[in-house]
Amino acid sequence: MSDAPLVLGLETSCDETGVGIVRGHTLLADAVASSVDEHARFGGVVPEVASRAHLEAMVPTVERACTQAGVRLQDLDAVAVTAGPGLAGSLLVGVAAAKALALALDVPLYGVNHLGAHVAVDVVEHGPLPEPTMALLVSGGHSNLLLVPDVTHDIRSLGATVDDAAGEAFDKVARVLGLPFPGGPHIDRVAREGDRVAIDFPRGLTSGRDLQRHRFDYSFSGLKTSVARWVHAREESGDPVPVADVAASFQEAVVDVLTRKAVAACREHDVHDLLIGGGVAANTRLRALAQERCDAAGIRMRVPRPGLCTDNGAMVAALGALMVTAGRPPSRLDLPADSSQPVEVVQV
Ligand code: KG4
Ligand code: ZN
């Protein structure tokens, strides 16, 4: 156990300042400072506000993680950081901090891909990843279907959203329904009282030529517009809006397509393990329907606990530790932050 590398991971790609510490597959600390409350009144993340919040939170969050883990910075074997994709200014804060730490401590630095880290984090919860694993990543910033033969250096994109991310659609529909930001958890809660077949909302890219051309891609923008139109028509006619039914029917449209394509991808690529991550993985209906469809298809499903599904530093530390263990060479100290880093670039 003590031979396993002690790695600190920094995550600042969006509105969470995450600092995690792992030893091999063991999670020792997961400290997160979120600026989500500062963005709430804007109904979405404001990049400049997020960058400043990262600057203020960085040092205290690193200190909190070390205290939680009971380790000193001098004990670290490596530092890992999200190099992209994400908000440029926010990424820069994490990358600069990681470089400073690696230089001062004279340890190797690993600049890693945010999406790869979302996949890797499950090793601290459920042990080594089967190779290959299929990963469905759904959050406010991404909706990706990934074939992962080796999370340290071979991640292949099978599909992604062509417009809004799944979480973004939840947040926008919540706004239409007068629910607070971020809307996902509120829709999840309200939908429990609603009828998921009350309204037949569209499933994007699931039939005809759309499906042929976008086999494993997603689209939620048309769905979002359709919900908004439905609600406005209702308001104009003076009838009350059945919020719970709209929430449940909208949610069903999202999770139906997410799970249908994820299971189809597993079948088509002969993969028997599906990992679901990202903030939307906390959705109770997504988990239930995914479990049902995986069971029917003989696929094992893995979902990290909610705190590890949302953005955090532990996921970056986990991927860094896997890279150290696999003997992958470190990144250069002048590594750039890349806001649009392709998912295939697991390490910079
Ligand atoms: O991974 P995350 O914390 O941050 C990034 O966007 O990267 O994900 C946040 C997103 C938000 O859009 C939020 O509404 C959504 O995840 N979310 C949910 C639930 N919990 C969080 N969406 C649906 N159901 C939930 N229970
Ligand atoms: Zn994320």
Structure description:
- This protein has 348 residues and is α/β, with parallel strands linked by helices.
- The chain has 2 domains: 6-121 and 312-326, Nucleotidyltransferase, domain 5 (2-Layer Sandwich), CATH 3.30.420.40; 133-306, Nucleotidyltransferase, domain 5 (2-Layer Sandwich).
- Helix content is 44%, strand content 18%.
- It is built from 13 helices and 10 strands.
- The chain has helices at residues 36-39, 47-69, 88-105, 114-120, 122-126, 166-176, 184-191, 208-213, 221-236, 243-268, 284-297, 306-309, 314-325; strands at 6-11, 16-23, 26-34, 78-84, 109-113, 133-138, 143-150, 154-160, 273-277, 300-302.
- The chain has a 5-stranded mixed β-sheet, with helices on both faces. The protein has a 5-stranded mixed β-sheet with strand order 8-7-6-9-10, with helices on both faces.
- Strand 1 and strand 2 form a beta hairpin.
- The two termini are 28 Å apart.
- The model has no long low-confidence stretch (mean pLDDT 96).
- The structure holds 5'-O-[(R)-(carboxyoxy)(hydroxy)phosphoryl]adenosine and zinc ion (ZN).
Q: List the ions, cofactors and other small molecules found in this model.
A: 5'-O-[(R)-(carboxyoxy)(hydroxy)phosphoryl]adenosine, zinc ion
Helix run count:
13
> Average pLDDT across residues?
96
Would you list the SSEs in sequence order as H and E?
Answer: EEEHHEHEHHEEEHHHHHEHEHH
The biggest beta sheet reads: 5 strands, mixed
- CATH topology of the largest domain, anyone? Nucleotidyltransferase, domain 5
- How far apart are the termini? 28 Å
**Record field, number of beta strands:** 10
Tell me the number of structural domains: 2
Fraction of residues in H or I helices = 40-55%
Give the strand order of the largest sheet, numbering strands 1, 2, ... along the chain: 3-2-1-4-5
Strand content: 15-25%
Q: What best-fitting shape do the alpha-carbon axes yield?
A: globular
CATH superfamily of the largest domain: ATPase, nucleotide binding domain
**Oligomer description:** single chain
CATH architecture tag of the largest domain: 2-Layer Sandwich
Which CATH C-level class of the largest domain is it?
Answer: Alpha Beta
The gyration radius over C-alpha positions equals 20 Å
Uncertain segments are none
Find the structural class using helix and strand composition.
alpha/beta
